[in-house]
Amino acid sequence: MNKNPAALLCVLALTACASGTSSSWYRETSSADQAERDRIQCERQARINSPGTSTPSYRGINAGGGSGVSDGLANAERQSGMANDCMRAKGYSLR
C-alpha cells in the first residue's frame, strides 16, 4: 500500500485546521477580497516552490526510507511557512 494517500490526508487535515482559525490576514489598503486573492496566490506559489511536492511518488511503501506521513507533514509545514512569508512580504499581518 502506498503511503502517499495518508500524507495527502494529513496535509488536507492540517489545511482545514489552519483555515478554521479566527485570525485573518489584514493590510490597511486592501479589501477582504483582495486579501483572499493574495492568500490564494501565496499558497499556490508555496506549493509550486516547495521541494519534493511537484510530482507524486509511486515507488512503494519503503522506497527512499522516509515515512510518507511525516514527509507530508513536513511539506505542509514548509508550504505554510512559505505562504505566510509571502503574505508578510506583501505587507499583510495576521489579526
Strand content: under 5%
The level of helicity is 55-70%
- The span between the termini is 42 Å
| Form type | elongated
Number of helices: 3
Low-confidence stretches: none
Largest sheet: 2 strands, antiparallel
Would you tell me the overall average pLDDT?
78
Q: Biggest sheet: strands side by side, in what order?
A: 1-2
Count of all domains: 1
Rg from Cα: 15 Å
Structural class: mainly alpha
Helix and strand sequence: HEHHE
Quick one: how many beta strands?
Answer: 2
How does this model look, in words?
With 95 residues, the protein is mainly alpha-helical. It has one domain (4-14, 30-55, 62-94). Helices cover 59% and strands 4% of the residues. It is built from three helices and two strands. It has helices at 4-19, 32-49, 68-89, and strands at 25-26, 93-94. Strands 1-2 form a two-stranded antiparallel ribbon. Helix 2 crosses helix 3 (68-89). The mean pLDDT is 78.
Features:
mainly alpha, single chain, two-stranded antiparallel sheet, 59% helix, 95 residues
Lay out the secondary structure:
Elements: H1 4-19, E1 25-26, H2 32-49, H3 68-89, E2 93-94
Antiparallel strand pairs: 1-2
Helix pairs in contact: 1-3, 2-3
